[in-house]
């Protein structure tokens, strides 16, 4: 009986320690870690043998609580305009190559990682880890998200996983103030590489 | 009946005003204007200008301004050098395009970026003035004492995918473009203004050879 009691105490202490490590629904800042009205990025997209370069504007529209993501060519031509509102993405416009459904799905996934509003996520789990990057993990829309934080509480790496075959990794390079100077997206089993270099923040 | 007549007159007056830009009158002799512009275009061996590019997205209340330098050398060498808001160079030299982005230089075939290829060919034709004979566009010409003003509506389905209308201001004295406005929609358009244009000056081939 005593043995069971000791075993029970050990197990309960382990379980409680685990729960202490994950604080649920803790207030989490945005993944990008900055307040902005608009962000302008120099952009390079490599998809198989195709290369696209230009600018990406991420613009917050407080009047209807939406965000627009506009990818444009060097000469200003809008190649793709996406809208994120009420936790859903829609295509406002997409020219030629960018209207391919598979590519659009991937781009939705990429931008959901960095701009999705965490208020829509039911359960956030934040874990403080000694000598390792702190982690924010959650499941949302049957997809798994892991955001790894550096010591200054800014996200350094994000991972999105739909299944064993489909995942996206984002690496953030930040300056001393924590501004995301570069975002680099890689995709498992798809030759799609996206680099966003910050030009302007408003 | 009188009300209807007045309304119709007002509609015609407003549409006439919209179609004809302020300070410009319709060009009567299109053939003469075309000959004049093409003659100047044929004599253009090189062009170097500063440019300011303003991308307006009125629906997002956003204007993105870029500045830089433009070089063209007959027959097919082009260099766009963006100095603001970031340093970026695009060069086209015999159907190969090279991008220099910071310290990195990448070379591609123009076939790998159709949007860039279409738009670059359009802008180069506009800048050197030979777009006037391009049958992919329906052209409405206007003029004042200094400039021609052309409204170009694409007939070509491919081009329509990119641009709904282009407005082009050509300097009568030189025959080269001073301003291009490319409309994607009423609330989404790009203005490229050229200034300090130098025509037919020697431009070294090395300008287009980016390493």
Topology:
The complex is a heterodimer of chains A (202) and B (211).
Chain A: H1 2-21, E1 22-24, E2 38-47, E3 50-61, E4 66-73, E5 78-85, E6 88-94, H2 101-115, E7 125-127, E8 134-140, E9 143-149, E10 155-161, E11 167-174, E12 180-187, E13 192-201
Antiparallel strand pairs in A: 1-7, 2-3, 2-13, 3-4, 4-5, 5-6, 7-8, 8-9, 9-10, 10-11, 11-12, 12-13
Chain B: H1 2-19, E1 25-26, H2 30-42, E2 46-57, E3 62-73, E4 77-84, E5 88-93, E6 96-101, E7 104-109, H3 114-128, E8 137-143, E9 147-154, H4 157-162, E10 165-171, E11 177-185, E12 188-199
Antiparallel strand pairs in B: 1-8, 2-3, 2-12, 3-4, 4-5, 5-6, 6-7, 8-9, 9-10, 10-11, 11-12
Q: From the structure provided, what is the oligomeric state, counting identical versus distinct chains?
A: heterodimer
Low-confidence stretches of chain A at least 5 residues in length (pLDDT < 50)?
7-26
Q: Which bin fits the share of residues in helices of chain B?
A: 10-25%
Helices of chain B, by number, come to 4
* CATH class assignment of chain B: Mainly Beta
Number of strands of chain B: 12
State the domain count of chain B: 1
**Total number of β-strand segments of chain A?**
13
Biggest β-sheet of chain A, characterized?
Answer: 13 strands, antiparallel
Largest sheet of chain B: 12 strands, antiparallel
Q: Which structural class do you get from the secondary structure elements of chain B?
A: alpha+beta
Amino-to-carboxy terminus distance of chain B = 72 Å
CATH topology of chain A: outer membrane lipoprotein receptor (LolB), chain A
Percent range of helical residues of chain A: 10-25%
């Amino acid at each position: 009986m005593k043995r069971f009691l000791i075993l029970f105490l050990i197990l309960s202490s382990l379980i409680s320690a685990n729960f202490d490590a994950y604080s649920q629904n803790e207030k989490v800042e945005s993944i990008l870690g900055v307040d902005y009205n608009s962000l302008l990025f120099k952009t390079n997209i490599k998809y198989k043998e195709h290369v696209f370069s230009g600018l990406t504007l991420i613009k917050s529209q407080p009047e209807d609580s939406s965000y627009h993501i506009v990818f444009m060519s060097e000469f200003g031509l809008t190649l793709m305009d996406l809208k994120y509102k009420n936790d859903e993405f829609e295509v406002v416009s997409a020219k030629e190559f960018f209207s391919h459904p598979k590519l659009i799905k991937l781009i939705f996934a990429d931008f959901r990682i960095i701009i999705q509003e965490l208020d829509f996520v039911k359960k956030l789990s934040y874990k403080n880890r000694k000598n390792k990057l702190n982690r924010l993990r959650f499941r949302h829309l049957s997809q798994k998200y892991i955001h790894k934080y550096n010591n200054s509480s800014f996200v350094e790496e994000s991972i999105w996983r739909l299944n064993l075959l489909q995942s996206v990794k984002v690496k953030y390079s930040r300056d001393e103030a924590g501004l995301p100077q570069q975002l680099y997206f890689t995709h498992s089993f798809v030759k799609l590489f996206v680099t966003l270099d910050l030009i302007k923040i408003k | 009946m009188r009300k209807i007549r007045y309304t119709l007159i007002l509609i015609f007056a407003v549409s006439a005003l919209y179609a004809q830009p302020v300070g410009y009158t319709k060009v009567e002799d299109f053939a003469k204007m075309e000959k004049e512009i093409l003659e100047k275009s044929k004599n253009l061996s090189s062009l170097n200008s500063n440019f300011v590019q303003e991308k307006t997205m009125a629906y997002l209340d956003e204007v993105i301004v870029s500045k830089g330098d433009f070089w063209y050398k007959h027959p097919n060498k082009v260099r766009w050098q963006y100095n603001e808001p970031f340093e970026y160079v695009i060069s086209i030299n015999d159907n190969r395009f090279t991008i220099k982005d910071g310290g990195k230089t990448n070379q591609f075939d123009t076939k790998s970026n159709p949007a860039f290829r279409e738009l670059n060919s359009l802008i180069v034709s506009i800048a050197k003035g030979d777009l006037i004979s391009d049958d992919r566009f329906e052209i409405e010409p206007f003029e004042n004492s200094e400039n021609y003003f052309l409204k170009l509506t694409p007939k070509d389905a491919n081009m329509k995918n990119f641009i709904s209308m282009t407005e082009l201001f050509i300097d009568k004295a030189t025959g080269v473009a001073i301003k291009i406005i490319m409309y994607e929609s009423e609330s989404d358009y790009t203005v490229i203004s050229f200034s300090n244009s130098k025509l037919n000056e020697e431009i070294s081939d090395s300008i287009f050879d980016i390493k």
